[in-house]
Amino acid sequence: MFDKIFSDHMTALADEVSSAAWLAPAAKVRARGDRRRIQLTGAVAVGAGVLTATTGVVMASGGPTIGTGGPRAIPDTLVMPHEGDPRWDRDDNPRIASVFNPCGGEDPTLAGRTDARTVSGVVPQGDQDPVPLVVTTQLFLFRTNEAAEAAITELSRRSEADCGWFGGWAPTMGLGQFVVLARTMYPHEDHRPRMAVAVRKGNAIYVSHIESNSGSVLDPLFEYEAAKEMNRRLCEALGLCEPLTCYFRSPMPGPTASLTANPTQAPLDHWRPYPCDQNPSDVASPDLASPGPTPESPGESRPPIQNPRIAPVITEVTRQSEGVVLLRWTSVHPDAAYFIVRVGGDPNLPIASVYNASFVVLTNLPPLDGSYCFQVIADVGRERGVSQTRCL
Amino acid sequence: MFGVRDSKSFDAFYAGTAKRAVAYVYAITGDLADAEDAVAEAYARAWQRWSKVGAYDDPAAWVRRVAYRVAVSGWRRARNRVTAHRRWGAGTPTAQLNPSIVYLVDALRRIPAAQRRAVVLHYLFGLSLREIADETDSSINAVKQRLSRARQSLAPLLGAEDPEGRLPPKEADQHV
Predict the structure, then answer these.
(1) Chain centroid, CA A172 distance in Å
(2) Across the interface, which of A2, A59, A326 has its CB nearest the CB of B151?
(3) φ, ψ at A115 (rounded to 5°)
(4) Strands A204-212 vs A133-142: parallel, antiparallel or unpaired
């Protein structure tokens, strides 16, 4: 009897999953197998950053960590993603212009550069758009770590400079600490959307730039997997290894001791590190849910100003599966950071934080006896708005 | 049938087997996004070797084994969360699973992984003890024991707490 009943249950499961599951078209799966360059997409999209309750894209560390020096020339043992693929070109011009240069003007990656390699080609977008994307990947080496940092900092600054690009620092992508993600704003004057990610490891900067000739909307992290692979190759071939640290955005300037090891990391001082295998809420943070002024913490001289006008409105709380909840809310400000607090949990600690986003997928939530209830707290400058509580 | 790397045969194979493979991995992991991505990865690998895999008696079994390994990889699980986010970010609606299904999967997650894998292969795909043993690199006796213990564990779990009340609590039989 059990056999029959359980078989029925499993059949129902298969039917249910068949309806709910999303499967890539077969052609896309074949393309994935052919290229071994998985079109992993999403994650912390520009303008839709997502950090889950246990976020942290864990990457294998190993090998030496990045020191103050570094290689000056790109060895032949380093093979860039796509290098050698049919119809992909390689250019070893050490003074080639960076394909990612928001605002144009002087190329910020030329100062202190000692070597470069460029690999470019086209890749299919899949079934949805027959026009291929133009992908350019570049690796720059600099005389010093500081020169590389200055270059990527300038790329980030220009990404935020309202000159047709939108983006900036994106350390939650799981690619490392010094990561810039940017895309051109819509609508595009030339109908050619572009997107780029730049990653700095030691004295190296890796750039991946994607351009669409069809005007289609670009997947934010079309080359994410290639970028991760490049991280691994930089470690293996150049010794530029960096144990991965995960980050969440600090609600306000606060203690950032771990980041101050390098005094030139000021652009990232709103991002707080936490071990990738821990929940960010395990990292001490100021009281977020309290409606009144919060106690001062080291580095914080003034309490936030409560402003109900910037309180988000939670529009959706949906349980996706066991321990997985989708939360959506109204955006209150383009520069807002949002902190998700589980009501009934530790009221002082957010379970997730996102920047400039209007949704989050919370995963690995613990089993609950009752309902899941949440608040979303918007943080804009020194003002804070707390949403009404919404429960499942 | 599948002796050459023929995209049409692969596409037909994919269309005919992929959703059930997702159901299998979902039943194992309890995470639909994980399951979808693990299955896609497994089929991508199958396509890479399609001239060989396609010639197997049961290429679906090969895909299931690969998808299982992929799904239980911690690295991939972390990455798959990202994939799920992309889906939400793109605004593609994903149907919410029936609570009774979620409940069933939750019950499955409470039993050891080896038992869970055996019981899902047995009841979802109707595999025999030998077939399960082959697929899980186990002995037949080990599979028999896992199935028996899984039944003992699942019957009260589902019977006592099944919101639909469809599973009586003491229906577990001991034979395989």
Answers:
(1) 4
(2) A2
(3) -160, 160
(4) antiparallel
DSSP A45: B
Q: How many residues does chain A have?
A: 392
Range picked from A351-355, B3-7, B35-39 for highest mean pLDDT: B35-39
> How many other C-beta atoms lie within 10 A of the C-beta of residue A182?
26
Sort B40 into a burial class: Cβ within 10 Å, 0-12 / 13-18 / 19+.
Answer: buried
Q: How much is the pLDDT for A55?
A: 30
Q: A111: Cβ–Cβ under 8 A, 6 or more apart, which residues?
A: A147, A150, A151
Asked if residues B146 and B119 have their Cβ atoms less than 8 Å apart, the reply is: yes
Residue with token string 């050490």: A94
Out of A18, A33, A48, the one facing B45 most closely (by C-beta) is A33
Q: How confident is the model at residue B146 (pLDDT cuts 50, 70, 90)?
A: very high
Beta strands, E only, A156-278: 165-169, 178-184, 194-201, 204-212, 246-249, 271-274
Contacts of B120 in chain A (CB under 8 A): 10
- Give the closest residue to A175 by CA, choosing from A150, A138, A207, A143: A207
- What residues have CB less than 8 Å from A205, skipping those under 6 apart? A109, A139, A140, A142, A148, A151, A152, A198, A199
Among all residues of chain B, which has the CA nearest to that of A20?
Answer: B95
Contact B19 A23 (CB under 8 A): yes
pLDDT value, residue A297: 33
Residues of A in contact with B119 (CB under 8 A): 6
Q: B136 vs chain A: nearest CA distance in angstroms?
A: 19
- β-sheet with A359-362: strand ranges across: A314-321, A324-329, A359-362
Per DSSP (E only), the strands in A65-190 are: 89-91, 113-123, 133-142, 165-169, 178-184
Could you report the predicted ipTM of this complex, rounded to two decimals?
0.76
Please, what's the b/e burial string for A252-271 (b: 16 or more CB within 10 A of its CB; e: otherwise)? bebbbeebeeeeebebbebb
Classify A337 as helix, strand or coil.
strand
Residue A382: HSE in the Cβ half-sphere, 13 Å Cα cutoff: 10
User: What's the DSSP call for residue A241?
Assistant: B
Higher pLDDT, A176 or A270: A176
